[in-house]
Task: structure prediction
Amino acid sequence: MFQNQRINMRFRCLSKEELQELDNELIQFLIVNQVYKEDWALMNQESPNKAKELIEMFSDVVLEKVYSKVFFLERQVPKQLCVCSLSDSSGEMITIEAIEEGIDLTKEDVVDECLLISPSKITIYHGKKAFKNTKADEVFLLLNHGFLVSNEERFKNVSQHIIQST
Result:
């Protein structure tokens, strides 16, 4: 049953729109925590902080599931491209940084040109690390640093160029 104690959120609170999309799941979560429809309505009126705590708990449960299913992330800014591949316990990151002025790594053709034709215009960093926390915590941290969910094809495209150039 739901304990009346303040929790520290691991991730973030879901937005109103996200909660609306997950209405059925929220209802199931509340029932598991022995909070039924009438109780929920009353709690929202009389104890909004308790209701907020339940929403925070629900948000953490949902985001843990979502983040644990993310396997690729990327971040692109004009002077830098980072791509990541994530397993359950470790991550691999490739970072490409422009050395020369005027190189915009947000443009795909520029990235390909630098990797294939003009590698002297960029610096490449490649590293792997074991996670100190859970994969979900690492994904959350990276998302908060401007990374977006990516795909395997993107990571492979960049990593193949790195392997060829070494």
Observations:
- The chain has seven helices and five strands.
- Strands lie at 72-77, 80-86, 90-98, 122-130, 148-149.
- The helical segments are 16-21, 23-32, 37-46, 48-68, 108-116, 135-144, 152-165.
